Amino acid sequence: MGKTTICASLGTALAKLGARVALVDADITLNNLDLTLGLETSVVYDISDVVSGKCRLKQALLQDPYAEGLFVLPSSHAMRSGGIAAKDFKEIILTLRENFDYVLIDCPAGVDEGFHRAVSASSEALIVTTPSISALRDADKVITLLDSYKMQNIALVVNRVRGDLVLEGEMLSVADIVKLLHIKIISCIPEDDKALMMCGSTPALSLHNQAIVMLAHNIECGTARIFDATAKYRGIVGKIRRKLIKI
Predict the structure, then answer these.
(1) CA-based nearest residue to 220, from 197, 190, 191, 186
(2) Residue 108: domain span
(3) N- or C-end of the chain: fewer Cβ atoms within 10 A?
């Protein structure tokens, strides 16, 4: 559903607003977060080294070369998924909170031990889903589980929205999804073939990145702007675009 890309892009956007941001890869055995940011060759220590005492937390953090204030704590290939206790993970997150404005945890897929370890260390949650029925069913299950953790705030990010299909009635709208899940919406991320992640020295202001910037402002500034994925497909020109897509 693109949660790792959104986590990395959001962290970059928040850092470019002047915040200090730590990204934590909670998907033990996989290293998707540093790979997504292009930092995989810079990894010397990872979260397992911090837990084992091989290095200090500060030594394991990677600084993004393009976004001042953005740091990444990589996951571990060597350690099994259950190798990090929830209390050790929570201690790391609490330490990061003392030094950063935002600590974004890239939660593993599914609702197994890794999910609960990540969630138990969190105070707020962004649920990333897509407009497909199967994804929405999974999101509904996650919302129910998160309710038991008594989060301070839970909000929804709807990813890969096709504005043309929404207007044609072939895809659920954001409003439909909110009604189904009974949860606050904080961002709509459009499907964008030209999307480049919000990182690097000269990120393109694609539709995807425009939506990510709106999401970052909603979090940092308390705004409530939601990207309208249908806007470019409305009116006469929009109808032409929709017809051309079907050709």
Answers:
(1) 186
(2) 1-122
(3) C
